[in-house]
Amino acid sequence: MILVLLLAAGCQQKPQHALYKLKELRVGLLPDQNEVSMRTKYSPLLDYIATYTGLKTTLILPTSYEGLLDLFSKKKIDLALFGGATYVKAHRLYGAKTLVMRDIDKQYRSIFFVKANSGIKSFADLKGKAIAFGSRLSTGGYYMPRYFLGKKNIDIVDYFNVIKYSGAHDKTAEWVRDGVVDVGVAHSGVINDMYRDGRLKETSLKIIWETPVFPDYVWAAQQQLLESDVTLLRNAFMLLNPRKPAQKRILDNLGGGFYLDAHHKTFNILNDVVYNLGY
């Protein structure tokens, strides 16, 4: 009887998921823009990673932020580009391991914007208006705007007459441009992308307020990946060299200058914000 109990206890102490070595690389991306834009932006990077690692690399694009977390939880992807909030949740629930982030990923803002000819001139004019956030799991399109509005003693339920969720930053901008809502809040990086590639005209929107800066976006790997594979992937990103024309084009396409090592502690404040506001 004692032997049986000891054996049972030993079985319970085994890890639920054993370490594994990459035979191919399955990559998931946070769908914060439409699919065409995402593929255009990230395909050159993934081609480079495939060449560097020698691994067949497959891009998997979920249709929602929740979908990315689901893919990661079921280990249908090995590597994911998370937003800050989805990373915090993936780390807490599934042990996601930080890999790298761009040089610009610690300096983002949320921006509140209206249609340029709306007649709205200040934040005070937004009271009683219809607002669109992005996904409820978005760092720059929900959590950090809520956090900074709280610092201004603004409760969104009391302040705005209608609250909508577009699911993606680019859709929020389109809703404001097309008059679906009066005001939108989105990640500054995505709005800049839309100006850069022509999806938005410079005269379409007017910024009413910008939040202070916060960190966002991080590449993270499954906790069970062998450390040698984690190092291989990290090196692939960090060795992208802006002095080499082909690699500079990849970095320019991503809107960054280079990649640097990422650490969980970078997201400590966001972790508290997500926890306090709930998932």
Provide an overview of this structure.
With 279 residues, the chain is α/β, with parallel strands linked by helices. 42% of the residues lie in helices and 18% in strands. A six-stranded mixed beta sheet has the order 2-1-3-10-4-11, with helices on both faces. A five-stranded mixed beta sheet has the order 7-6-8-5-9. Helix 2 (35-53) crosses helix 9 and helix 2 runs antiparallel to helix 10 (245-254). The longest helix has 19 residues, at 35-53. The protein starts with a helix and ends with a helix. InterPro entries: PhnD (IPR005770). It comes from hydrothermal vent metagenome. One of its GO terms (biological process) is transmembrane transport.
How does the SSE layout of this entry go?
Layout lengths: L1 H11 L12 E5 L5 H19 L3 E4 L4 H9 L5 E4 L1 H11 L2 E6 L7 E6 L14 E4 L5 H13 L4 H4 L2 E4 L3 H9 L5 E5 H10 L7 E6 L7 E4 L5 H12 L6 H10 L4 E3 L6 H10 L2
Parallel strand pairs: 1-2, 1-3, 6-7, 6-8
Antiparallel strand pairs: 3-10, 4-10, 4-11, 5-8, 5-9
Helix pairs in contact: 2-9, 2-10, 3-4, 5-11
